[in-house]
Amino acid sequence: MDTAYNKDMAAPDQSENLTKGKAFDLLPAGYVLQKGGRRGRIFFANDTAERFLGRPDIPLLHTGIFDHILPRDAARVDAALTNAVTSGKVVRLKDVRMTGAQGQLRFINMVLAPADQTPAKPVKAVAGVGASVQIVIVDRSEEKRREDKLFFLSCTDPLTGAQNRRSFVRFVDDVDQSLAGISAALIILDIDHFKKVNDTHGHDAGDEVLKVLVQRCEKILAWQAMQSIDDTMPAAMLARLGGEEFAVLAPGVNEEQAMELAETLRETVAAEPIDAGDRKLSVTISLGVAVRWLGNVDVDNWMQAADVALYQAKQTGRNRTCMADDGDCDPAALPEGHRISRGKHRP
Questions:
Q1: Which fold has domain 12-146?
Q2: Which secondary-structure segment (H or E) carries 35?
Q3: Which phi-psi region, left, alpha or beta, contains residue 83 (left: φ > 0; alpha: ψ -120 to 50)?
């Protein structure tokens, strides 16, 4: 049976529906109708949706909307679809991840509503069961990329690419709230005799030392994350606090593991000279470690404890790691010039 529409022979109601179908093709947003729930099939799609979702190997009307949604977002779209059908209300979702026509990742805003009427289009409908839902698809991938870039710039140190202090503080607070009862290590590290590097070899050489240090430390932290058997535990974060001072927060580690991590960082940095222009510089770091149980931890005290341990490492020869004593830390124990310049941990 020929399913194509003949405009001249179409009945009045068919012609009216055909006109509506063409009107949908003028929309800048994708528009689809799907019958059934998660396993349902699309039975109407405007031209924008076909350009956005259609693939040369599979006709769009042989797929369902969930064939195009990334698995990690499928559950929330399914819940929204069910809500729209059962409540009769419009449901909106933001930043749903989908695969586009060329297989690329796309971020879309989605509007779902029950379909009271079905616009006609000269295509063969695919059978389905259950209530129909209309779905509007607005591609915001470029906008999302711009937002992500701005967020990245606001969270990272422009010289080294490490997280900045603001991002680190946010991470510490988030981990403290979400992982109560879990131990975590705070490591503060400082480049030994860094002022001499700048004074002797220039600030360009100093900048190169900072960048290479971050690269070497992040490789160790990435390796540690790959070895973790707990996929739910956040990976350790490295941040530049200012100048030549950096911090690492490693959730889910005890004192022994924290010392092992700190020593690995220290040995990795010192293992090879750093190329800085026309010279190779031998660089070492000193580290202070403090371990706390998460859950309403006093972050200022925690950072001061790690800073006191760092000061001890420098006072006892540098290029070494010291563990903070348990209990509270008295910032007055530090010389004025060594105290963390940021004062309170808040940026």
A1: Beta-Lactamase (3.30.450)
A2: strand 30-35
A3: alpha
